[in-house]
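Here is the promised in-class demo. Please do not try to memorize the tokens; focus on the logic of going from shape to residues.
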């Protein structure tokens, strides 16, 4: 649904939907930790695109907490975002400096 909203140009609706989805996932982590981590990063990227700096900062802070609480799952998610020598960790640090 979120991807469809983005495709239809409804980025603000997608950001709201992603935030609500994140809250739901935080409540029920049973076996879906990787999905939660992926959703955190996806939400931060959407917020960056929408220039929602404070919300993006909060999502990245939640990602940092996620990496400490669930390091194995975070490593799996991070591997999906590796581009050459540029890692997800590098990206998060860069965005936190820019915000």
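The designed amino acids, position by position:
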């Amino acid at each position: 649904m979120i991807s469809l909203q983005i495709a239809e140009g409804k980025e603000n609706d997608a950001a709201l939907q992603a935030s609500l989805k994140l809250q739901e996932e935080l409540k029920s982590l049973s076996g879906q930790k990787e999905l939660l981590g992926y959703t955190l990063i996806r939400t931060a990227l959407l917020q960056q695109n929408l220039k929602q700096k404070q919300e993006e900062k909060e999502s990245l802070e939640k990602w940092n907490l996620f990496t400490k609480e669930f390091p194995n799952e975070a490593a799996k998610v991070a591997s999906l975002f590796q581009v050459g020598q540029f890692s997800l960790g590098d990206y998060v640090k860069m965005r936190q400096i820019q915000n």
